[in-house]
Request: fold
Amino acid sequence: MGDGADGPVLFISDLHLGPDRPDLQALFHAFCAGPGRRARALFILGDLFDYWIHPAQAREPAYAAPLGDLAALTEEGVAVYLLVGNRDFPLSPAFLKRYGITLIPDPSSLRLGAKRVLLTHGDLLCSDDHRYQRFRRIIRHPLTRFLLRPLPYPWLRRLAQGLRRGSQREVARKPITITDARPDAIAAALQGADPFAGPLAPYHLIVHGHTHRPQWEEISSGQHRLVLGAWEASGAFYGIWDGAVMNLTFFPGAGEPST
Reply:
């Protein structure tokens, strides 16, 4: 496995890369050249891109560059896994395979040492946001995706941009209690309730993003939650498993925090 064979396992989420944020693209390039290159594995838990709706995006520099960074990691022996989020869920296994990236389902689980770990993007935990959960079911429904697939890329791009603006307005109007993960949903997920059931349940740790509120917290005795941060010009909070413990750490950027 390259020089990262005995390295740590890293977890990132909510990068929101796109043509409007060259600062984030530069931050991600630096991350891949630094901590990423020294890692044994990198897990991306959703929203790598601000939106993804068509493979034609890969021909645009703002998307080609980060995909190239990830391909370079896999060529050096770093295992890269991606779990889609609410903005990039159309990414397909066949497309990602071109870059050496493995698509994993939401939710997924793995063992880190003696720890049983649950991975999810995080939007399923925001169960109080009924409007979003309804939209999520509709936009991801196979019929919806079948109807959208034949549309030309420029049309899909305008649609995605319009939905993105509408989502930003919607989130701005909602109280934090609606857009955050519910404590009972977190506790149920750790116990392996649907849709988080699996052979490793109950879990010692849940790792997720989506809420943009990075933190490490104890849920109950022996069970913890790690929330990854959204990427900003000032840097990004990410998870690192060093072979013994999990930590939430910060990779600094060159800019100032957004307001």
